[in-house]
Amino acid sequence: MVSDLTIAVLGGGSFGTAIANIIATNGNRTFLWMRDEARAATCQRNRENPEYLPGYALHDNLQVTADLPAALQDSDLVFISVPSKSFRQVTRQAAPLLKANAMVVSTTKGIEPETFTLMSEILRQELGHRLTGVLSGPNFAKEIVQQQQTGTVVASSHAAVIERVQGVLSSSAFRVYSNHDSFGVELSGALKNIYAIVAGMAAALGSGHNTQAMLITRSLAEMGRFAARLGANPMTFLGLAGVGDLVLTCTSDLSRNYRVGFAIGKGKTLEQAVAEVGQVAEGVNTLRLVKQKADQLDVYMPLVDGLYKVLFEQRAISEVAHSLMVGEQNTDVEYISQ
Ligand SMILES: NC(=O)c1ccc[n+]([C@@H]2O[C@H](COP(=O)([O-])OP(=O)(O)OC[C@H]3O[C@@H](n4cnc5c(N)ncnc54)[C@H](O)[C@@H]3O)[C@@H](O)[C@H]2O)c1
Ligand SMILES: O=P(O)(O)OC[C@H](O)CO
């Protein structure tokens, strides 16, 4: 070990495993907590997470456990990396077990079902005064473990959180940039999942590069407009967590959200598409919540509207695509002074 710090990552899926392994490789005593005892024991024994990242060796500094108190008792920094629908429950489980002064960071890219609460707000509600932050960026877990050069963003209003996360997570293959607009960074990570579904659907229908470029750019405009209305800084959307992650997930079938869209574009129902992907695709739930919020606030979001019609109102994709093309011709860049 080269560090005095102990770190815990809660959630033994693909992203939790990938970041826990970087942190361990960097010389930190690291715990990866997963709820299933048998799976934890297998990962710990075989030094691999066969369900999510088969074939990638876990570093000796990484201890995989289903014992939450053991994972948290000495941890100075805790990452929570579970789907948004489980985030509050896991935070609540962890809260009484956290060490004094432990910092807590969310890696989850979603919005709490029913409440439109972002993960940083859940951390504030459940953990009170603790120092917290969020991590988001163009980060396929599969490419991280392959040591592909990758950049991410840590956002917090506390400089100490940014410094600690950069300290434990940066490596020659993983750069961690900072931002103080946590809300914008977090919102970018959640919103891009919606547009990855749209892009996957368009790809399944044979869209060319012109169409893809238009879709990605108009998605960015829509995300920024929505975020600005909610009080985030639209400039944040120009960074890695915004345009970076949007481009990544709208152009690759490594994205589960893109694969859901692709399957629907090939004629599958939403249920079939979600079952086929088999892992969390946060964009489906985020779409429901964003549509409702945009309607309430009267924010113009034609792509969200169109996708909602296809996914939840059984409207034909071709009909929705046509209405988008003949709809209102909007300004190209809205933040240029008029
Ligand atoms: N996979 C990526 O490349 C990636 C990258 C960046 C961010 N993210 C985000 O991180 C979050 C997690 O993604 P992932 O890819 O690791 O998901 P995943 O589906 O691979 O894994 C999620 C893990 O959480 C566990 N889990 C679910 N509910 C739980 C509960 N109540 N208690 C304990 N464990 C629970 C599951 O068992 C699973 O191990 C998502 O919001 C995702 O958007 C993913
Ligand atoms: O597989 P997705 O669509 O959840 O995307 C994973 C990450 O968010 C990419 O940054």
UniProtKB/TrEMBL annotation:
<dbReference type="InterPro" id="IPR013328">
    <property type="entry name" value="6PGD_dom2"/>
</dbReference>
<keyword id="KW-0560">Oxidoreductase</keyword>
<keyword id="KW-0443">Lipid metabolism</keyword>
<comment type="similarity">
    <text>Belongs to the NAD-dependent glycerol-3-phosphate dehydrogenase family.</text>
</comment>
<keyword id="KW-0520">NAD</keyword>
<dbReference type="GO" id="GO:0005829">
    <property type="term" value="C:cytosol"/>
</dbReference>
<dbReference type="GO" id="GO:0005975">
    <property type="term" value="P:carbohydrate metabolic process"/>
</dbReference>
<feature type="domain" description="Glycerol-3-phosphate dehydrogenase NAD-dependent C-terminal">
    <location>
        <begin position="181"/>
        <end position="320"/>
    </location>
</feature>
<dbReference type="InterPro" id="IPR036291">
    <property type="entry name" value="NAD(P)-bd_dom_sf"/>
</dbReference>
<dbReference type="InterPro" id="IPR011128">
    <property type="entry name" value="G3P_DH_NAD-dep_N"/>
</dbReference>
<dbReference type="GO" id="GO:0046167">
    <property type="term" value="P:glycerol-3-phosphate biosynthetic process"/>
</dbReference>
<feature type="binding site">
    <location>
        <position position="192"/>
    </location>
    <ligand>
        <name>sn-glycerol 3-phosphate</name>
    </ligand>
</feature>
<dbReference type="InterPro" id="IPR006109">
    <property type="entry name" value="G3P_DH_NAD-dep_C"/>
</dbReference>
<dbReference type="GO" id="GO:0051287">
    <property type="term" value="F:NAD binding"/>
</dbReference>
<keyword id="KW-0547">Nucleotide-binding</keyword>
<feature type="binding site">
    <location>
        <position position="280"/>
    </location>
    <ligand>
        <name>NADPH</name>
    </ligand>
</feature>
<comment type="pathway">
    <text>Membrane lipid metabolism; glycerophospholipid metabolism.</text>
</comment>
<feature type="binding site">
    <location>
        <position position="14"/>
    </location>
    <ligand>
        <name>NADPH</name>
    </ligand>
</feature>
<feature type="binding site">
    <location>
        <position position="15"/>
    </location>
    <ligand>
        <name>NADPH</name>
    </ligand>
</feature>
<feature type="binding site">
    <location>
        <position position="137"/>
    </location>
    <ligand>
        <name>sn-glycerol 3-phosphate</name>
    </ligand>
</feature>
<keyword id="KW-1208">Phospholipid metabolism</keyword>
<feature type="binding site">
    <location>
        <position position="109"/>
    </location>
    <ligand>
        <name>NADPH</name>
    </ligand>
</feature>
<feature type="binding site">
    <location>
        <position position="282"/>
    </location>
    <ligand>
        <name>NADPH</name>
    </ligand>
</feature>
<dbReference type="GO" id="GO:0046168">
    <property type="term" value="P:glycerol-3-phosphate catabolic process"/>
</dbReference>
<protein>
    <recommendedName>
        <fullName>Glycerol-3-phosphate dehydrogenase [NAD(P)+]</fullName>
        <ecNumber>1.1.1.94</ecNumber>
    </recommendedName>
</protein>
<keyword id="KW-0444">Lipid biosynthesis</keyword>
<feature type="binding site">
    <location>
        <position position="245"/>
    </location>
    <ligand>
        <name>sn-glycerol 3-phosphate</name>
    </ligand>
</feature>
<comment type="function">
    <text>Catalyzes the reduction of the glycolytic intermediate dihydroxyacetone phosphate (DHAP) to sn-glycerol 3-phosphate (G3P), the key precursor for phospholipid synthesis.</text>
</comment>
<keyword id="KW-0521">NADP</keyword>
<feature type="binding site">
    <location>
        <position position="52"/>
    </location>
    <ligand>
        <name>NADPH</name>
    </ligand>
</feature>
<dbReference type="InterPro" id="IPR006168">
    <property type="entry name" value="G3P_DH_NAD-dep"/>
</dbReference>
<dbReference type="Pfam" id="PF01210">
    <property type="entry name" value="NAD_Gly3P_dh_N"/>
</dbReference>
<feature type="binding site">
    <location>
        <position position="257"/>
    </location>
    <ligand>
        <name>sn-glycerol 3-phosphate</name>
    </ligand>
</feature>
<feature type="domain" description="Glycerol-3-phosphate dehydrogenase NAD-dependent N-terminal">
    <location>
        <begin position="7"/>
        <end position="159"/>
    </location>
</feature>
<feature type="binding site">
    <location>
        <position position="256"/>
    </location>
    <ligand>
        <name>NAD(+)</name>
    </ligand>
</feature>
<dbReference type="GO" id="GO:0141152">
    <property type="term" value="F:glycerol-3-phosphate dehydrogenase (NAD+) activity"/>
</dbReference>
<dbReference type="GO" id="GO:0141153">
    <property type="term" value="F:glycerol-3-phosphate dehydrogenase (NADP+) activity"/>
</dbReference>
<dbReference type="GO" id="GO:0046474">
    <property type="term" value="P:glycerophospholipid biosynthetic process"/>
</dbReference>
<feature type="binding site">
    <location>
        <position position="256"/>
    </location>
    <ligand>
        <name>sn-glycerol 3-phosphate</name>
    </ligand>
</feature>
<feature type="binding site">
    <location>
        <position position="35"/>
    </location>
    <ligand>
        <name>NADPH</name>
    </ligand>
</feature>
<feature type="binding site">
    <location>
        <position position="109"/>
    </location>
    <ligand>
        <name>sn-glycerol 3-phosphate</name>
    </ligand>
</feature>
<feature type="binding site">
    <location>
        <begin position="256"/>
        <end position="257"/>
    </location>
    <ligand>
        <name>substrate</name>
    </ligand>
</feature>
